[in-house]
Amino acid sequence: MAMRSFYNEIRALKVRDLPARLKPMFTIDSLKNAGKSGLDSYHAKASTSRASAEARWWPLILIGSAQMHW
Questions:
Q1: How many Å is the maximal CA-CA distance in the chain?
Q2: DSSP string spanning 7-37?
Q3: 5 in helix, strand or coil?
């Protein structure tokens, strides 16, 4: 989806305007910030999915531990 929006942005540009549009996107600082934000969103999704997985398995863990004590 991001690639499609990027393509739609540059599709409308003239060839002579394209380097001026792309150069700021590919600076070292810009790439570092993009990588950092991507990793932050990845970790945020991973922590929420881990919490939801624990919430789903918690009753089964209780049942399993109750059966082991019998």
A1: 77
A2: HHHHHTS-TTTHHHHHGGGGSHHHHHHHHHH
A3: helix
Helix, strand, coil shares of the chain as percentages rounded to 5?
Answer: 85, 0, 15
Q: Which residue has the tokens 């991973």?
A: 46
CA 59/CA 67 separation, integer angstroms: 12
What is the spatial distance between Cα 28 and Cα 40, in angstroms, rounded to a whole number? Answer: 18
pLDDT in tens, the chain (70 residues): 678 988 998 898 899 999 998 899 889 999 999 999 989 988 888 777 666 666 666 565 555 555 555 5
Residue 24 token pair: 């700021």
d(CA 53, CA 51): 5
- Report field, pTM of the whole predicted structure over 0.70: no
